[in-house]
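Hi all, long-time lurker, first post. I run a small reading group and we've been trying to get comfortable going from sequence to structure in the token notation. Rather than ask abstract questions, I figured I'd post a concrete chain and ask someone more experienced to write out its structure so we can walk through it together at our next meeting. Sequence below, copied exactly:
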Amino acid sequence: MAEEINPRKQPIAIGVDVGSTTVKAVVVDPVTKKILWSDYLRHQTKQAEFVLSFLERIAEAFPNVVQKDARLFITGSGGAPIGPHIGAKFVQEVNAVTLAVETLHPDVGSVCELGGQDAKIIIFKKNEETGQKTAITSMNDKCASGTGATIDKCVMKVGLPNEEVVKIEFDDRKLHHVAAKCGVFAETDIVNLVKSGIPSLEIMNSLADAIVMQNLSVLTRGNTLRHKVLLLGGPNTYLPFLRDCWRKRIPETWNDRGYDYPKDVPIDELIIVPENAQYYAAYGAVVYGLYEEANVGVYTGMDGLREFINHGRASRLGESAGPPLIKEMSELEEFKQHYTIPRFDAQKYAPKTKVRVVIGMDGGSTSSKAVMIDYESGELLKKEYQLSKGNPIADTKEILARLKQWVTDQDAELEVMGFGATGYAADVLQESVKSDANIVETVAHMMSATHYFGDVDVICDIGGQDIKVLFMQNGDIKNFRLSNQCSAGNGMLLQAMADQFGVPVTEYADVAFNAKLSPKFSYGCAVFLDSDRVNFQKEGYSKEELLAGLAQVLPKNVWQYVVQIPRMAELGKKFVLQGGTQHNLAALKAQVDYIKARVPGAEVYVHPHTGEAGAIGAAMETRRVVMRRGYSTFIGIDNAINLTYTSKNDEETRCHFCPNLCARTFIDTLTPDGGTSRYISGFSCEKGTVESEEAMLALTKTRKQLMKKFPNLVDYESKQVYRHFYDAEPMPEATQIIDDVKVSKGLLGIKKTAIQRPFQRSSAEAQEKRRRIRVGIPKVLNIWTLAPFLRTYLEALGIQKQNVVFSDYTSEEMWLEGGKYGSIDPCYPSKVAQAHIHNLLFHHHEEEEGGKKLKYIFFPCITHVPAGLNKVMDTASCPIVAGAPEVMKAAFTKETDFFAQRGIKYLDPAMTFTEPSLLKSQLFGSFGPELDITEDENDFAVDQAWKALAKVDEDLQAKGKAILEQVEEENRVAVLLLARPYHSDPCLIHGVLEEFQVLGYPIISMRSIP
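-- Answer (accepted) --
Happy to help. Here is the structure in token form:
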């Protein structure tokens, strides 16, 4: 389309924002700072090419402006490598956005910007003395979670068209848990919600809420947003439900923190999305650049950029790049001859033939697959595949209808002898259509591979969301590895990357094979891979090269990140590759080359029905079960096709049998013959599997009996360490003579002389004062080990046992209420400390006259912990854990000093438990002046505290010894928890150990090992 001609002859200033996914450009009048021209396009990795295209279009639009009268300023994650080739001055994007806001909106107090991979928060604070504003900026530094890239991937998993996404309105009445810290975890949660039948609108609202709360609690770095708030960036511009979520949550944060904002002003005027919100970085680059000297940023034309695109980039990249997927076309042809998956032709039938079959279904994370096999011979007859539409029952109904249609179209008669399922959808299908077999995925894939290839050594299945690697021995599974916490290296990663480049996933291999070189991606986390991708784009790699590099990193993710076995040759020589991702020949070529390079003489096979391997295994197991049993439980194909169902998720379905209040989904099905069933999803424990109180009580009673029979020492320890169980010995009187050492300097050095002297006591007034003091301690981090020491130390000094107050146990409610002070980013067990400090401040401290007030909150910086072992290399605490108390102090004093406001003193002394003498000195330095104690009293209290700690260990070890002796005598198994001290926190361990208990396994902790 031809550009509209602007007759302007006066100078212009051009601003270009080269982002991770888009290029934005504006033309600005240098005098009035008015935008004269603008555009915004996805660059599909061709950053330099799109910049060139924009410059060509700007030249067309402003033909009368001579080159020397144009100044050019560039910003964004991909701007720096391009700038020198066109004479552009590079401007850091936070500075650009800040200046754009200050220019266009001088009354704005805060900015929240979400880009393709970047998130920024800018808060303008006014200096009361000078009246000037200071911009406090914060940006996501190591993860793209909560940005447009995460939203794009989650939209794809939900299956909503873009035209529907932009119509969603925010509704917080039905929200579900979605991880916001990690984009990969968020995607996993989204998949689970989809497979549980949660409506798409609720899922997208839950994602928006998670993203907004993540930014408000972490990216603000403890600061409070000031009004007005400006929402910038593509996601905030184009997604109404995201904007509405900001408008819901920001005022709640203001109210929680006591921030005074104008409540008479409508929220949409306090939190606004301005016109041209997506262009603020590009516009700000111009505003910033115009303050430079006139000779800075003078546009030098397009020739240098063309040269860079055509020649300079390739020659520069060749120095550090890796090899391509193929070196010559003959290599590709030979590979295709060996590994192209053979064409499958479905069975043909004569009219009136009676077809007796078994159907196997694999309800995967991103697609559903089904196969039909012959009941008598087990021969594969027909395959069906479809991308998931968001509900496993709907997917199953559609696929079964197509399978039946295939038979009836041949005028044959279909008789389904059995139906089995595996994958994400297996549980809901077992309940709704009464599957004959609900088979574990690993077993399904093993049965399928051994059916086609006999005795194999390794089976590697790469699906949309999961990676499964099975190690075989004599036809059975010897061991296995699963990608249980990260989806890096799977099919969805490749598909998402292809989508970002505008390449259909079916054309991925054709594009990648055209690369002449490839960037060397670091294997690991998918989010870090995406960060690598952005960096490589900045260096100038083409989409062909990037897709080739991504294909080559896939086997590294499988074998180094998931499997983590350094010598692949020890696994065997016969490898079978299966899973839908093997249809991508680029990924398959990289996988085959990787294995053969590390396993001499390796035989690598591709499953002939690679995407349907799980479904084939489910069908084979179903056939075996039905033949052995003699009948099928399946409701029949017609009933299954005509099955009607309702999915309900509201307050009526919420589980109220414990404080977690899990949001459950009831999926009720009705068959044409009147059969009904209910499947419940969304629960986090067995209590959620029942509906009535009577059933729950019976279930709970059974669980309690099992848990009593099989003790859990981790749970016991979590309660025992916070109880008063050790009565400290009476403090010596002032008349009592004690042994001591007098240290003096002599001619020959330090001289130590044994002496006897009276024990030094503090005054009676000080002792009485200590009886009335209340001290709060958070139940976090290494306090889980040292609570008995801290409690007894304070009690031995005369503080009453009821006045040593610990915060409540961690809960989701505690976190939601008190976890919004933005402090520690990378570690949840440390980050949750802010909720515990909040709990002490607002739930254990009574403000009214005569109430139980806290005098101190005691949260020591524990630098070294007791190891309980001999000859260890070190006992230093994790730096994040050791420094958490200082960070908490900053979080609660940054804007409002909550401690001073409530009359509480915060104590966070360093404590080194590996040096007893130093420890006494550290505690005396902290509590001596505060409690008016003598050094003798301090030393005595420390000695008593050590005795209390030893008593706890003796008690736990005695119980641990009894359990070990019992399981040895009965030849049974006990479960040992190897974990950090704070994993004894019931909320942090998520009740996992209770599930082992009810299965008949006693639990012991590291501390209880005799």
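A couple of things your group might point at:
The CA atoms of residues 224 and 537 lie 35 Å apart.
The chain has a mean pLDDT of 83.
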